[in-house]
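User: Predict structure, ligand pyridoxal-5'-phosphate.
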Amino acid sequence: MTIQNMQMPDHLWRPITQHSTLSGITPPRMVKGEGVWLTDDKGNRFIDSLAGLWTVNVGYGRKEIAAVAAEQMEQLAYLAPMMTSDPVVDFAEKLQTMLGFEAHVYFSVSGSEANETAIKMARQYHLQNGKQGENRFKIISRYRGYHGNTLGAMTATGQAERKMGYEPGAPGFVHVMPPYPYRRHEKLTVEEHGAEMLTLLEETIIHEGAQTVAAVLMEPMITGGGVLVPPDNYVKGVREICDRYGVLLIFDEVVSGFGRLGQMFGHRIWGTEADIFTFAKGLASGYMPIAATVAKKHIFDGFLGEPGEMKHFRQVNTFGGHTVACAVGLKNVQIIEDEDLPANGQRMGDYFRSRIREELGDHPLVGEVRGMGLLTGIEMVSDRSAKTPLSEDRLNVLTRTAIANGIILGRNSNTIPGRCNVLLIAPPLVVNEEETDRIV
Ligand code: PLP
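Assistant: Predicted complex:
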């Protein structure tokens, strides 16, 4: 049979999937979700140890959220984003209260849009508030980081596979290496490695010309790119470098926001704040699509002016601040707070990592078990001393075997084509010890 004649299971075009591998296969159709469990149409049950795409923080099947959505939909389903309704204003208020600093919230629909928005905000901010002679438009981000699929967010992304075929991306983007303690030079301590990567960042800003650099865009901890836990000195060091050169700092907290790393927000772990933050996944736990770009007061103030000055933020998202999504998001974050889900995530994440280290720490294919809160990466290698990445084919065998045993596992994106060797475990934050044991 030629590739063109292959029998496809249906007419759905799935993301990041080579459909020829689905020929003759009937992928399971999920019909129900409850807690950490998914059930397919044949009654098979799976633990979703990826929480969707690390999104469903409060777990599946929350009737109280469904009730809020239904009520809001009946009352007022949609409103133009320039207009005002209770759910939208209340959700923005709630977010800035949770963050604990004065800020304004711009809503959109996806993490990509939230980052795209942050990039545009940073550029316009500098244009309106920068020093004479400056032309700050460049965005520095990091290899292995993921920021989204739209042109700017994709260009900021540091993973080759996500960009192959779609380049050149947007102009004005520069990448630096992130700390990767497991693969640091053997002579360096983790802290020294962090300092080395900071020097690299600083030199990049200098060589690009600081007066051309608008912002550093980064996840506090690289998540989908392989769970790269930064050295303790790194995140704070980035903040200091940004301040030294008048560069804004944008934290992409699309994954790390709302409890995933064991605290409500990822940046709190490193005691460092950005100028602009982006959130999505855990913001409404996937019950509705919604994202937010949160700008601190000094950024927002840089957009104030007389009407004719055109200093306002000149972007609009038809579905940004969707009333139902905001009502749902509000209920979702209340649940995360009321049930103290970040703390449960921390407990279960620590428990998971200690169990995995106990059971598999000496396994010849396990290079390192690392993570924070309820996000764990297991770096798989074919040779422990040479740290040779396990081949993608062998990793696929692992994830397929896990699914056949009722466990949905994640794996990192192909940061380099053919090199994809970190297993990702990030179940909903409601996971309990028994379910964690099962994943182990
Ligand atoms: N930023 C990070 C850190 C992500 O992991 C993702 C998605 O996985 C995005 C941004 C993009 O979000 P979305 O897929 O909602 O556009």
